[in-house]
Design brief:
mainly alpha; 73% helix
Protein backbone atom coordinates (compact mmCIF):
# COMPACT_ATOMS: atom_id res chain seq x y z
CA UNK A 1 0.00 0.00 0.00
CA UNK A 2 1.43 3.38 -1.02
CA UNK A 3 -0.05 5.23 1.97
CA UNK A 4 2.11 4.12 4.86
CA UNK A 5 2.31 5.40 8.38
CA UNK A 6 5.63 7.00 7.43
CA UNK A 7 3.99 8.97 4.61
CA UNK A 8 1.17 9.95 6.95
CA UNK A 9 3.68 11.17 9.55
CA UNK A 10 5.49 13.24 6.92
CA UNK A 11 2.20 14.88 5.93
CA UNK A 12 1.51 15.63 9.58
CA UNK A 13 4.95 17.22 9.91
CA UNK A 14 4.37 19.36 6.81
CA UNK A 15 0.98 20.40 8.18
CA UNK A 16 2.54 21.31 11.54
CA UNK A 17 5.25 23.39 9.82
CA UNK A 18 2.65 25.07 7.60
CA UNK A 19 0.49 25.94 10.61
CA UNK A 20 3.53 27.31 12.45
CA UNK A 21 4.47 29.57 9.54
CA UNK A 22 0.86 30.48 8.66
CA UNK A 23 0.20 31.60 12.23
CA UNK A 24 3.47 33.57 12.34
CA UNK A 25 4.87 31.27 15.00
CA UNK A 26 1.65 31.29 17.01
CA UNK A 27 0.61 34.96 16.80
CA UNK A 28 -2.49 33.92 14.87
CA UNK A 29 -3.77 32.04 17.90
CA UNK A 30 -4.29 35.31 19.79
CA UNK A 31 -7.87 35.34 21.08
CA UNK A 32 -8.41 38.96 20.00
CA UNK A 33 -7.15 40.81 16.93
CA UNK A 34 -4.96 38.02 15.51
CA UNK A 35 -4.25 40.13 12.40
CA UNK A 36 -2.91 42.94 14.52
CA UNK A 37 -0.80 40.45 16.47
CA UNK A 38 0.52 39.03 13.20
CA UNK A 39 1.46 42.51 12.04
CA UNK A 40 3.16 43.16 15.38
CA UNK A 41 5.37 40.11 14.77
CA UNK A 42 6.59 41.72 11.54
CA UNK A 43 7.73 44.98 13.17
CA UNK A 44 10.87 43.60 14.88
CA UNK A 45 11.58 41.52 11.78
CA UNK A 46 11.54 44.63 9.58
CA UNK A 47 13.72 46.44 12.10
CA UNK A 48 16.20 43.52 12.23
CA UNK A 49 16.47 43.64 8.43
CA UNK A 50 17.05 47.42 8.33
CA UNK A 51 20.68 47.05 7.26
CA UNK A 52 19.71 45.25 4.04
CA UNK A 53 19.57 47.17 0.79
CA UNK A 54 16.14 47.78 -0.70
CA UNK A 55 16.52 44.97 -3.22
CA UNK A 56 17.79 42.49 -0.61
CA UNK A 57 14.92 43.42 1.69
CA UNK A 58 12.55 43.09 -1.26
CA UNK A 59 13.81 39.55 -1.87
CA UNK A 60 13.11 38.68 1.77
CA UNK A 61 9.60 40.16 1.50
CA UNK A 62 9.00 38.18 -1.73
CA UNK A 63 10.25 35.01 -0.02
CA UNK A 64 7.94 35.54 2.95
CA UNK A 65 5.08 36.13 0.51
CA UNK A 66 5.70 32.94 -1.48
CA UNK A 67 6.24 30.85 1.64
CA UNK A 68 3.10 32.43 3.09
CA UNK A 69 1.02 31.49 0.05
CA UNK A 70 2.11 27.85 0.28
CA UNK A 71 1.72 27.61 4.06
CA UNK A 72 -1.64 29.40 4.11
CA UNK A 73 -2.94 26.99 1.47
CA UNK A 74 -1.65 23.97 3.37
CA UNK A 75 -2.86 25.19 6.79
CA UNK A 76 -6.35 25.94 5.46
CA UNK A 77 -6.49 22.48 3.92
CA UNK A 78 -5.35 20.87 7.20
CA UNK A 79 -7.96 22.82 9.19
CA UNK A 80 -10.67 22.32 6.58
CA UNK A 81 -11.19 26.10 6.33
CA UNK A 82 -10.88 28.93 3.85
CA UNK A 83 -8.89 32.01 4.91
CA UNK A 84 -8.85 31.02 8.57
CA UNK A 85 -8.38 33.99 10.91
CA UNK A 86 -5.45 32.19 12.55
CA UNK A 87 -3.49 32.65 9.31
CA UNK A 88 -1.51 35.85 9.80
CA UNK A 89 1.57 35.28 7.64
CA UNK A 90 -0.28 37.47 5.13
CA UNK A 91 -0.08 40.37 7.60
CA UNK A 92 3.64 39.76 8.00
CA UNK A 93 4.17 39.83 4.23
CA UNK A 94 1.96 42.89 3.77
CA UNK A 95 3.68 44.85 6.52
CA UNK A 96 7.13 43.98 5.17
CA UNK A 97 6.04 45.41 1.80
CA UNK A 98 4.60 48.52 3.48
CA UNK A 99 7.90 49.53 5.07
CA UNK A 100 10.08 48.54 2.10
CA UNK A 101 10.68 52.07 0.70
CA UNK A 102 11.67 53.76 3.98
CA UNK A 103 14.45 53.59 6.54
CA UNK A 104 13.44 50.75 8.85
CA UNK A 105 15.88 51.55 11.64
CA UNK A 106 13.74 54.15 13.42
CA UNK A 107 10.49 53.90 15.35
CA UNK A 108 8.55 56.53 13.36
CA UNK A 109 8.46 54.72 10.00
CA UNK A 110 7.84 51.35 11.66
CA UNK A 111 4.94 52.63 13.77
CA UNK A 112 3.46 54.75 10.99
CA UNK A 113 3.72 51.80 8.60
CA UNK A 114 1.96 49.62 11.17
CA UNK A 115 -0.98 52.05 11.44
CA UNK A 116 -1.26 52.58 7.68
CA UNK A 117 -1.05 48.88 6.90
CA UNK A 118 -3.62 47.89 9.54
CA UNK A 119 -6.03 50.58 8.29
CA UNK A 120 -5.73 49.33 4.71
CA UNK A 121 -5.95 45.68 5.72
CA UNK A 122 -9.09 46.26 7.77
CA UNK A 123 -10.93 48.54 5.33
CA UNK A 124 -9.80 46.71 2.17
CA UNK A 125 -10.29 49.52 -0.35
CA UNK A 126 -10.28 48.63 -4.07
CA UNK A 127 -8.50 46.67 -5.48
CA UNK A 128 -7.65 44.91 -2.21
CA UNK A 129 -11.18 43.59 -1.61
CA UNK A 130 -11.39 42.26 -5.17
CA UNK A 131 -8.18 40.26 -4.68
CA UNK A 132 -9.48 38.92 -1.37
CA UNK A 133 -12.73 37.77 -2.95
CA UNK A 134 -11.49 36.47 -6.31
CA UNK A 135 -8.07 34.86 -5.92
CA UNK A 136 -8.14 31.19 -4.96
CA UNK A 137 -6.58 29.51 -1.94
CA UNK A 138 -3.34 30.77 -0.47
CA UNK A 139 -3.01 33.38 -3.23
CA UNK A 140 -6.21 35.09 -2.10
CA UNK A 141 -5.24 34.83 1.55
CA UNK A 142 -1.86 36.50 1.06
CA UNK A 143 -1.99 38.74 -2.00
CA UNK A 144 -4.75 41.02 -0.72
CA UNK A 145 -2.46 41.89 2.18
CA UNK A 146 0.49 42.35 -0.15
CA UNK A 147 -1.70 44.73 -2.19
CA UNK A 148 -2.48 46.60 1.04
CA UNK A 149 1.29 46.67 1.59
CA UNK A 150 1.89 48.17 -1.85
CA UNK A 151 -0.66 50.93 -1.21
CA UNK A 152 0.78 51.42 2.27
CA UNK A 153 4.31 51.63 0.85
CA UNK A 154 3.19 54.41 -1.45
CA UNK A 155 1.60 56.34 1.39
CA UNK A 156 4.61 55.80 3.66
CA UNK A 157 7.01 56.88 0.91
CA UNK A 158 5.01 60.09 0.41
CA UNK A 159 5.06 60.83 4.13
CA UNK A 160 8.81 60.26 4.18
CA UNK A 161 9.38 62.30 1.00
CA UNK A 162 7.56 65.30 2.44
CA UNK A 163 9.33 65.07 5.81
CA UNK A 164 6.41 63.93 7.95
CA UNK A 165 8.26 60.87 9.30
CA UNK A 166 11.27 63.00 10.26
CA UNK A 167 9.00 65.49 12.06
CA UNK A 168 7.25 62.64 13.86
CA UNK A 169 10.59 61.14 14.93
CA UNK A 170 11.68 64.55 16.28
CA UNK A 171 8.76 64.74 18.70
Amino acid sequence: MWWTSEAYNRCQEVDAFSKLVATAFGAGYAPRAPGTCGTAVAVPLAWALASLSVWQYGLVAAGVTLLGVACAQRADRAWGTEDNQRIVIDEVAGYLVTVLPVDRSGWAPLLTGFVIFRALDITKPPPIRWLDEHLPGGWGVVLDDVAAGVLGAGALWLLDHFGALARLAAL
